[in-house]
Amino acid sequence: MIQGHKKISARILGALLVALLAVGLAACGGDDAEESGAGDTKAVEKAFLTGMTHHHGTAIEMSDIAKEKGKSPFVTGLADDIISTQERELGEMKKIYERLAGGELEPDAMAHDGLGLSAEEAGMTHSPDTNEMLEMADPFDRAFVDEMVPHHTGAVKMAEVVLESTEDAELRTLAENIISTQEREIKEMNDFRTEEYGAPVPETSGGGGGEHGGGHSG
């Protein structure tokens, strides 16, 4: 009878040890999952900020050209607005990056990979020849909006990706502002193109070549 009690006690003890081990492993797994999730969020935040810095830089380059080459008040005025807004946002991104990553913000033309987007989806296929081809485009205004609409569309996609991950209030506000501003400008550019040239920007615009000879901006 004593031996029976010993066997039962041993079984109970063994079961308790297994249960405790399972609880411990679950706790460790939870910690690992939380750490992995936090790491993924940080990676997305950094990819967005470095990628959007490059993205804004190429938009400003094209807008500088539009200020000189633009034929209509709409295009030259839009160029001024883009430069003003995106230069301000570049300053905001620099401060956010320094706070979140503790380093200096550098533009990264390949950062779209970290957002799960292709270069085309992110509007980051800008080539060294893009600005030169845009300068030679005729009519310039049509070529400019044909480049800037897919460029803006890519920025909106990038901002949507970071909003799915980050909980940082300042970064969320920045991303939301990028979406609202650039979606409004996309509509304005399509309205302008329809009025002046008979149709909105084709979905295949940008990416190099085409009737305007312009490359899709980054």
Essential attributes:
218 residues; disordered C terminus; mainly alpha
User: What is the distance, rounded to the nearest whole angstrom, between the alpha carbons of the first and last residues?
Assistant: 81 Å
CATH topology: Ferritin
Mean pLDDT: 86
Q: Indicate the proportion of strand residues.
A: under 5%
Return the structural class.
mainly alpha
Question: Which regions have little confidence, pLDDT < 50, spanning 5+ residues?
Answer: 207-218
Helices and strands, in order, run as HHHHHH
Shape: elongated
Which CATH C-level class is it? Mainly Alpha
Largest sheet: none
Number of distinct helices: 6
What is the radius of gyration?
26 Å
Number of strands: 0
- State the helicity in percent bands: over 70%
| CATH architecture label name | Up-down Bundle
The CATH superfamily turns out to be Ferritin, core subunit, four-helix bundle
Domains (count):
1
Question: What's the layout of helices and strands?
Answer:
Layout: H1 2-69, H2 73-101, H3 119-122, H4 130-136, H5 140-165, H6 169-197
Helix pairs in contact: 1-2, 1-5, 2-6, 5-6
